[in-house]
């Protein structure tokens, strides 16, 4: 199971008294804010970009699964992502209040979507649970000096851990426990090769080792700012399922958005 992404990794269910949070929560918030400032290419008012990446999922050494990920981003409410692996194709489009999904097959190859999300290194929704962390500690990894947030016991003996490069501030690794049939296991991911994109940094390589023995290797092959004059790429693909899209408001916005309930997806017209 390698379906935990950097998006959801920081939603920590950590029960800790308010009096104990104190400086630990402030430091955690500071580390996350710094990582976003340095590396969040999807922040509000960021320039539009195109990202292309390749990934390999190694569960059976003799039969690796290879795939590609492409993201065309204009804003949080105007995004197109495309995932391919073997015969499988998936397209997702967000356009304002609408979202469309189109899958080539009903059966999704194992770990393909999570591999694509991981190589996309998404920090735009990164935040800590309000209940805080157990501790912050220093670690070393090769030549890296790291500052790490450690979560409380999840009830099964596992603790989540998220590490930031101490001098630079980039989020560089995470360890996420999960419960499987074989008991508590851990997924670990590390990102490297940060390169400049405008005033941001973005990792060009990622490796994840799953608790079930699988590995994911991903690398970015293209990341460039592009002015997208042709907005037709954000139109509904023929045959796609339509869902409501609940827009994400900028940070510090007090009034939550109203998002309509819709249980059954609609079909885009052909």
Give a quick rundown of the structure.
With 270 residues, the chain is mostly beta strands. Helix content is 11%, strand content 42%.
Q: Which features would summarize this protein structure in a list?
A:
270 residues, mainly beta, outer membrane lipoprotein receptor (LolB), chain A
Strands, helices and their partners?
Layout (H helix, E strand, L loop, with lengths): L17 H22 L9 E10 L6 E11 L2 E8 L2 E8 L2 E6 L8 H8 L15 E7 L2 E7 L10 E5 L5 E10 L2 E15 L2 E10 L5 E11 L15 E4 L21 E2 L3
Antiparallel strand pairs: 1-2, 1-12, 2-3, 3-4, 4-5, 5-13, 6-7, 7-8, 8-9, 9-10, 10-11, 11-12, 13-14
CATH class: Mainly Beta
Radius of gyration over all CA atoms, rounded: 19 Å
Across the major sheet, the strand order is 6-7-8-9-10-11-12-1-2-3-4-5-13-14
Shape: globular
User: Can you tell me the number of structural domains?
Assistant: 1
In which range does the helix fraction lie?
10-25%
In terms of DSSP E residues, the strand content is 35-45%
Name the poorly predicted regions: 1-20, 253-270
- For this structure, the CATH topology is outer membrane lipoprotein receptor (LolB), chain A
Mean pLDDT: 81
Order of helices and strands: HEEEEEHEEEEEEEEE
CATH superfamily: Lipoprotein localisation LolA/LolB/LppX
